[in-house]
Design goal:
heterodimer, A: 303 residues, alpha/beta, Rossmann fold, Alpha-Beta Plaits, 6-stranded mixed beta sheet, 4-stranded antiparallel beta sheet, 14 strands, elongated, B: 236 residues, mainly alpha
Amino acid sequence: MTTVNLQNVSRWYGNVVAVNDISMSLGPGVTGLLGPNGAGKTTVLHMMAGFLAPSRGTVTIDDAPTWRHPAVYRQLGLVAEREAVHGFLTAREFILASAKMQKLPDVKAATDRALELVEMTDAADRRIETYSKGMRQRTRVAAALVHNPQVLLLDEPFNGMDPRQRMHMMKLLHDLGDRGHTILFSSHILEEVEQVSGTVQVIVAGRLAASGDYRRIRRLMTNRPHVFAVQSSDDRRLAVALIGEKSVSGVEIEATGMTIRASDYGSFTRALPRIALESGIRLRKLIPSDESLESVFSYLLEA
Amino acid sequence: MSTVAWITARGLFGRRRALLLLPLPLLLVGLAALCRANNIAPSDWGTPVIVGLGLAVVLPVVSLIVGTGVLGSEVDDGTIVHILTKPLPRRDIILAKLGVAVGVSALTAAVPLFVAGWLADSVRLGLGLAVAAAVGALAYSALFLLLSLLTRRPVLLGLVYILVWEGLLGRFVSGTRVLSIEQYVITIADKIAPTAILEPKVSVPVAVVMAAIFVVGCAVFAIDRLRSFSMAGETS
């Protein structure tokens, strides 16, 4: 099991603090690195990838520092945000060169496997400069995956991809995560992160604002009422019963159901079925309506 | 050929910038051939054409184009990251790129210098100039490779070294010649083929030792700089 560790990491440029005392540990699975533009995501990724020295703290992969330590690239793959590829090479040549530089035992087989993984086999013998943005991105991902690294870091990997390519890339990241790889990808697009990963590291203004499963993060925000959409066989009667419950701070009745605000997630979710049962009301729908990553993210930004 | 050297060579010849290598050597050979065809005495054209154009311009400018092209272009466009994300010792990367730069520069400059030396005096002068040009290409390439890692404007700084340090200060301030690759090249060529065309201004030991210091010093410094290669955040 490979872990990436950041221990009290800060990075500053002159008087500007880009990353401020961040500690995190990434294990197998897919993690989204989330934050608004300028939050410090790329700086964190570059430090993890050994392309930036932390001003303070340590960045390690399985206890080996990433800075000035090229040996880490045996178990690390990087897809940087900058769309830089050797356009004069074909995708096959480009990936084959990566395999050779990784000194893999069977470079040809590794190249074919990587091309297949990103669905680029058919176009593999065309020069990269003739590719669309999405194809270039997939070629870069294949080159980063050719040595089957335990850790894969991707900076804004979905940029320039069409919806089908995006879905394919999401599935690829999912599969790699399920197979025990440690995947970290940065994005400022909430839907991307929400679809690929439940686990997030949220960076706001250079600080780690939250870390973990975003639904769990939401539940820990006890100072904000949790919002639920509820439909039942008798909304009005259920509303009367619920308003007497201590964990319920507000009920709104609408044409299509009710919106309930609960101050305590645990107490409310235990009380609701009990109250419904006692009142003889059938619950038809119960959906937490502010557990989306977008709500969590906006709450974190406001905090 | 290592994979790094192969990518470097493909990159070098795949860019339009490679075409810049052609005019200067052709001009050198063309001028020498023209003078020879018109029976102009080599004592009249040898020094301005061979030293003034060949050693002071063609060799350093070709080395500058190639030396900054093998690494500086990849640093500029970001493709260097693909090579740096491999578990290769940074020494191997620098040596592969230096090897390509020296090979291309030496070939591009030494051949026309050989022809010019042969037309001006003898095959021996041609060989002397070719060997000295190869040594010069090695020293210049190491210097310009290092500049690619020290500054975002390696071509500009390289031109300042060639035109101001060697071309201007080297003519008038004798102390600067100790740090002039052009002077080492003249001295080495003159040692192999003594002729009135070349006027060495530094001793052979100084030329050899200083050229070695340039090569080793710049290469070691470049390796260390590459180990600490940083990428600035683009979205952050």
